[in-house]
């Protein structure tokens, strides 16, 4: 069982100022919950750049190869059909389907990867620290170990308070 | 202190984040207003008319339509192209304007994308019903079958299948990924247990974690990057249905850009028609302001002018080509038996949008509403002119004929309107009509508060 200390801000500029102060003091912030993406937060929390773009690129390349390869195979090997004397291996007319499947594969792979890495799924039961952080609160979450002393907890609380956070709570 | 004289705030009325949530979620709360019930009843009647027409078409066949040997494509393809075109504005707003970092799109992208999805459903209905034997509709997909046949990958009609289905699926996931954070907001504010459970399920367990937001932004950006060329490809491929044929009036290389700009043109008109009604009905006038309307009107002038130039270019090329059939096809469009349709198209699409050069008209809600309807009508006639007048007098004068729709075809068209408005009215009750998180993201930089306090 983990314990959490949470505290909130009412404004993203105060949040950013507070986060920088906490970081300077060496406080380890587990997560920040915000109602909308706050720019610059990635740097402070040291969130690495998402690799989802690579997933998209690879899936798009697979989609292109599958679509082009399949059409070429159908019309040159499996069942060559003469459509008005056009060449069997007619590259230009394979392009539209190839393009569409590239986009389809890339988009679906990225969204599926996005859901998996975020552990988002229909019916997922997330730990909701504060229902207002999808509305107008910017919540800072600090995870504390079960066996951590009261002293270290009160230190964290003090650090949060000094950084200007409100409503500091310890939750089991 | 410096107050920018150039731009007015995107969101009016000194809102804080809580007020934004409250305002946008207000239409979803409580019981619907009487207007909503009236609206959905009328839409339902249209849907019933469409259901009857579908029944007649499926039971008795395509012979119930006014199409004939010469005019094999008529209202169904006209309606198909018209609806697909309308869908384009949603993707244009959410993808292309995102890539161009146009902040004003945040107020309208959600509902415009919903409009896209519904419009593509309406569009897809027409080719499906034109197949005649709906039960064999799945023959359009390449799957291993006992007939040992594949589909014809050289055919633009098959490209259409891939383009439209990809477009629908990608628009759907793009829209839903954008919805997830807002559904989290709805879940966290739900008062009843059932509502909490439903939106908990739909929101996929969104909490607003900074890591999730970071990935969410990456996914949204790349999806926009994918959707932008996709939307251009879809109407390009739709135009190939015509352009790759050998029918005078269809066999034209300018069709792809001409169709795409026409699609964006008609789509923005439809977005305007819907937004002007819904901003009033849902009390969202602080979010969808006159500035938004003006920005959309500017896009209408641009795309409308491109369409106008395309009409003139087509005419010039018909004469300049020196091809007798090509020249006649265009002469027949403008002065033949369907000249009335041609001149409705010219007036609505080329002349009326030019009124938006006047700032007063561009910023007038009433004028914009009227002109947006004109554009919708004009763009429907554009497709009618392209489809029917090019066909009705073909190479062989003995088969020249006229086309007029039957009540069944009218029913199918009205039915898609019923479907469109039914689903749109359900959408505004079930989902947040404006992207809440995105509006909050631009509130500081473009809200009224910053403008009055200014940059220090």
Using brief descriptors, characterize the structure shown:
heterodimer, A: 172 residues, alpha+beta, Alpha-Beta Plaits, 2 domains, four-stranded antiparallel beta sheet, 5 helices, rod-shaped, B: 456 residues, mainly alpha, Formate dehydrogenase/DMSO reductase fold
Q: How would you describe this structure to a colleague?
A:
The complex is a heterodimer of chains A (172) and B (456). Chain A is an alpha+beta fold. Chain A has two domains: 3-49 and 126-171, Alpha-Beta Plaits, CATH 3.30.70; 52-117, no CATH class. Chain A is 49% helix and 13% strand. Chain A contains five helices and four strands; from the N terminus they run βαβαααβαβ. Chain A is rod-shaped, with a radius of gyration of 26 Å. By secondary structure, chain B is mostly helical. Chain B contains 16 helices and no strands. Chain B has helices at 17-25, 34-60, 75-99, 109-130, 156-189, 193-202, 210-243, 255-281, 290-321, 324-335, 339-351, 359-362, 365-392, 407-430, 436-446, 448-453. The longest helix of chain B is centred in the middle third of the chain and has 34 residues, at 156-189. At the A-B interface, strand 2, helix 2, helix 3 and helix 4 of A face helix 1, helix 5, helix 6, helix 7 and helix 15 of B.
Oligomer: heterodimer
Described by the principal axes of the CA atoms, the overall outline of chain B is: globular
How many strands, which pairing sense, and closed or not: the largest β-sheet of chain A?
4 strands, antiparallel
CATH topology annotation of chain B:
Formate dehydrogenase/DMSO reductase fold
Q: Helix content range of the residues of chain B, please?
A: 55-70%
Class per helix and strand makeup of chain A? alpha+beta
Strand content of chain B: under 5%
CATH topology term of the largest domain in chain A: Alpha-Beta Plaits
| Shape assignment of chain A | rod-shaped
What is the number of helical segments of chain A per DSSP (H or I, 4+ residues)?
A: 5
Overall pLDDT score of chain A: 85
Number of strands of chain B: 0
**How many strands of chain A?**
4
Output the CATH homologous superfamily of chain B. Formate dehydrogenase/DMSO reductase domain
The top-level CATH class of the largest domain in chain A is Alpha Beta
């Amino acid at each position: 069982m983990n314990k959490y200390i949470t505290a909130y801000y009412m404004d993203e500029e105060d949040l950013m100022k507070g986060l920088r102060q906490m970081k300077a003091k060496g406080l380890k912030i587990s997560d920040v919950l915000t109602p909308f993406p706050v720019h610059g937060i990635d740097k402070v929390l040291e969130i690495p750049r998402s690799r989802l773009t690579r997933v998209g690129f690879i899936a798009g390349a697979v989609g292109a190869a599958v679509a082009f390869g399949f059409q070429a195979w159908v019309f040159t090997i499996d069942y060559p059909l003469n459509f008005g004397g056009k060449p069997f291996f007619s590259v230009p007319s394979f392009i539209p389907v190839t393009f569409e499947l590239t986009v389809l594969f890339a988009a679906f792979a990225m969204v599926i990867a996005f859901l998996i890495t975020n552990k988002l799924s229909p019916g997922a039961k997330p730990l909701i620290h504060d229902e207002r952080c999808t509305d107008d609160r910017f919540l800072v979450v600090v995870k504390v170990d079960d066996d951590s002393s009261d002293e270290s907890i009160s230190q964290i609380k003090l650090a949060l308070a000094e950084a200007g956070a409100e409503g500091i709570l310890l939750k089991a | 202190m410096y107050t920018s004289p150039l731009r007015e705030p995107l969101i009016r009325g000194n809102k804080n984040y809580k007020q934004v949530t409250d305002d946008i979620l207000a239409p979803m709360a409580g019981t619907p207003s009487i207007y909503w019930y009236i609206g959905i009843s009328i839409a339902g009647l249209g849907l019933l008319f469409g259901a009857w027409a579908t029944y007649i078409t499926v039971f008795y066949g395509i012979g119930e339509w006014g199409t004939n040997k010469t005019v094999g494509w008529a209202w169904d393809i006209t309606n198909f192209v018209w609806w697909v075109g309308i869908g384009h504005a949603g993707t244009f707003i959410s993808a292309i304007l995102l890539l161009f970092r146009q902040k004003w799109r945040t107020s309208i992208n959600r509902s415009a994308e919903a409009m896209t999805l519904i419009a593509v459903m309406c569009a897809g209905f027409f080719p499906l019903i034109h197949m005649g034997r709906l039960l064999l509709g799945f023959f359009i997909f390449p799957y291993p079958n006992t007939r040992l046949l594949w589909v014809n990958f050289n055919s633009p009609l098959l490209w259409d299948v891939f383009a439209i289905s990809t477009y629908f699926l990608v628009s759907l996931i793009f829209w839903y990924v954008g919805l997830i954070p807002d559904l989290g907001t709805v879940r966290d504010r739900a008062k009843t247990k059932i509502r909490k459970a439903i939106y908990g399920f739909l929101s996929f367990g969104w909490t607003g974690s900074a890591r999730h937001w970071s990935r969410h932004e990456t996914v949204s950006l790349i999806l926009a990057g994918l959707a932008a060329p996709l939307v251009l490809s879809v109407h390009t491929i739709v135009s190939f249905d015509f352009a790759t044929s050998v029918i005078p009036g269809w066999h034209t290389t300018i069709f792809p850009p001409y169709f795409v700009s026409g699609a964006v043109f008609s789509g923005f008109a439809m977005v305007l028609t819907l937004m002007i009604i819904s901003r009033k009905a849902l009390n969202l006038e602080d979010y969808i302001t006159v500035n938004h309307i003006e920005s959309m009107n500017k896009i209408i002038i641009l795309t409308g002018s491109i369409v106008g130039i395309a009409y003139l270019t087509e005419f010039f090329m018909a004469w300049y080509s020196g091809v007798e059939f090509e020249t006649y096809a265009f002469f027949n469009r403008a002065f033949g038996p369907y000249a009335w349709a041609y001149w409705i198209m010219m007036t609505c699409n080329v002349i009326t949008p030019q009124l938006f050069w006047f700032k007063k008209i561009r910023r007038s809600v009433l004028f914009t509403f009227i002109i947006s309807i004109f554009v919708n009508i004009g763009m429907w006639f554009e497709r009618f002119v392209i489809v029917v007048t090019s066909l009705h007098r073909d190479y062989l004068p003995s088969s020249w004929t006229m086309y007029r729709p039957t009540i069944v075809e009218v029913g199918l068209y009205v039915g898609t309107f019923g479907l469109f408005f039914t689903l749109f009215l359900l959408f505004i009750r079930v989902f947040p009509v404006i992207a809440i998180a995105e509006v909050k993201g631009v509130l500081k930089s473009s809200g009224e508060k910053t403008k009055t306090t200014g940059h220090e």
